[in-house]
Amino acid sequence: MNSLVSFLVVFCGAGIGGMLRHAVNCIGRGLGIAFPWLTLVVNGTGCMLMGLIAGWFTFFGPRAGGQTLQLFLMTGILGGYTTFSAFSLDAVLLWERRQFGLAVLYVISSILAALLGVLAGLGYSRGTFGPGTGPHV
User: What whole-number distance in Å separates Cα of residue 61 and Cα of residue 42?
Assistant: First the structure.
């Protein structure tokens, strides 16, 4: 694939992912949520989707849609949507506000949500668990 095309594909996907992330931020502000719960939700769902998509491409290989689709979905959309940079800032801000317990809870729960999300996505896409509709069925 032409490198310029790959950059444009990632650019377009990241724009979509960034808009999705902004929509989640708007919802949080509208609900008056102070604790960064929605960042936690975005990280967990983004990681689960990453696991699903990675499993899909691993299982179906070249038939899954090729490198362009993989770049668009994984590097582009999910790269623009997930928020570990925002996660880091939220954690530091909680710590700076001397909300040490919340900061530690936030870091641990974010990491667990991310790891469990990827595990669930990979497990589902491999047919390990779920409603039995994974690609191995």
Answer: 27
Residues 56-88 have pLDDT tens digits of 888 887 777 888 999 999 999 999 998 787 788
Q: Kindly give, in sequence order, each residue whose CB lies less than 8 Å from that of residue 97, ignoring residues fewer than 6 positions away.
A: none
Maximum alpha-carbon separation in the chain: 51
Q: What is the pTM of this model?
A: 0.74
Q: How far apart are CA 88 and CA 36, in angstroms?
A: 11
Residue 137 structure tokens = 């069925």
Residue 137 falls inside a structural domain = no
Number of domains present in the structure of the chain: 1
Q: How far is CA 32 from CA 25, 35, 36, 94, 134, in A?
A: 11, 9, 11, 17, 38
